[in-house]
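Input/output pair, single chain:
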Amino acid sequence: MSTSSGYRRRPLSPHEIRNLRIRQIGFRKGYDPAEVEALLQRLAEEVAARDGRITALLTENERLQVEVYARRHGQLPANTAPELDEDLIAQRIQAQQYADDMLAAAQTSAAQLVSQSRQQANEILRAAHDAAERAVREYRANAGGSYTADREELTRLATLAQWAMRQLAGLRAQVDATDDAARLELTSILDRLGSILSSPAQQPPAAPQTDWLTPRPSQAERSQPSMGWTSQTEQPPAMGWTSQGEQSQPATSWPPQTEQPQQASWSSQTEQAQPTMSWPPDGRFPSNGASGATPPR
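Output:
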């Protein structure tokens, strides 16, 4: 609905329609409050149904536009939004309606709580003034000739203060209980909204398998024969093994455990080399007058 200035009013939501209050003017005749509330409830339901139809039509329109584009160009547009199935749309509409209902109920409860609090406060003040007047009357009856207006006023104020202190403890406990009830109600509302919005596609994935964390031998390692021992409790044998069932040739490392090398050395691991003679052969150097080669340096 637009005005002459071009301003467009925001449409009313269902909970705003439910909580709409029509002002009553004095003692003039007006509409029946029950019929007005029934009409507002009907309007709220119609607005909620209209919002659901509009959402479904917009989704269908977007789907048709994507389909037309794909048929014309042979491919989907680059900015294609993820598809929203009908179940997800219905869940969102249901969640919105539930949130509107909860908000309307909360506003109604708050208004009722404020009205009850005001009524209770008036009753407390009335009872406090009655108690103060009784205390004043008792003072007048018992004062006799020592009666003064100041003492009467002090008696009234002291009675009101004592009454207020007694009522304050009760009000504090009532406020705490109301706060706890409101917290529980809000927690229940959040849980219900979460269950409505949750869907199988949004469930967390299952725990991954951990078998792949165990190291496995490569193809080259599986093709090589196992050497030595096959378990952690067995000690490696003195002789090497080429396979688990056959004994290999002795190791070619030198010297063996039972023999020590002599002056001759080995030039290879598979065949025995000729011994190399040390200089001088007899372990002595030739004398100065003897002819011969000098010891190597």
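The longest helix spans residues 86-143. The helical segments are 14-18, 33-73, 86-143, 149-197, 219-223.
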